[in-house]
Amino acid sequence: MPRKKFEEEDVQANLLPVMNIMFLLIPALLLAMEFASMASINVSPPKFSSTPSEPKPEEEKKEKPLNLKVFVMEDGYRVSADGQQEGAEAGKATDSKAPTIPLAKPGAPLNDYDRYDYAALEASVKKYKSLFPHETIVTLSAESKIPMQAMINTMDALAGRTCKIGKALKGEGVPDDCYFWQPVVEGGAG
After folding, report:
1. pTM, to two decimals
2. In a domain, 151, yes or no
């Protein structure tokens, strides 16, 4: 049996599909580098001293923050400062789930925005403002059924209903009738 002779063919490699893939991979890799950012943590070694450090005068004058929180409930307001509910026994965070400022109109429907005692809330925050004159931030949260207008009226009472904060923004200083005019609204808090 005679052997067949194989003829060699000149086959040229088709690089177009490989080049197309590389053409698509380069932008994809560059885009991935934007999202994969590198993070670093600056660490400094502890400083050692043969003598104990004395507190600086600025540290002694530093006030403890108030951390005023107001929780709007269907049956009134729960007010707490620095983790202590207003009216609760000392050392207990909360005495109960009862409000510290009850409704002005008990039994009124939720869409009656005058059901809340805004005057009592304003009197309460005025007392806190006299103790912490430099505080302006209050954390505000509410139950899920509380209407937005009740939240707005509550923010007005926290700021002070006669507060005209526009004067402070113009550089005239914060008026004395402005209490906690920087609310931080939390969702799902309680």
Report:
1. 0.61
2. yes
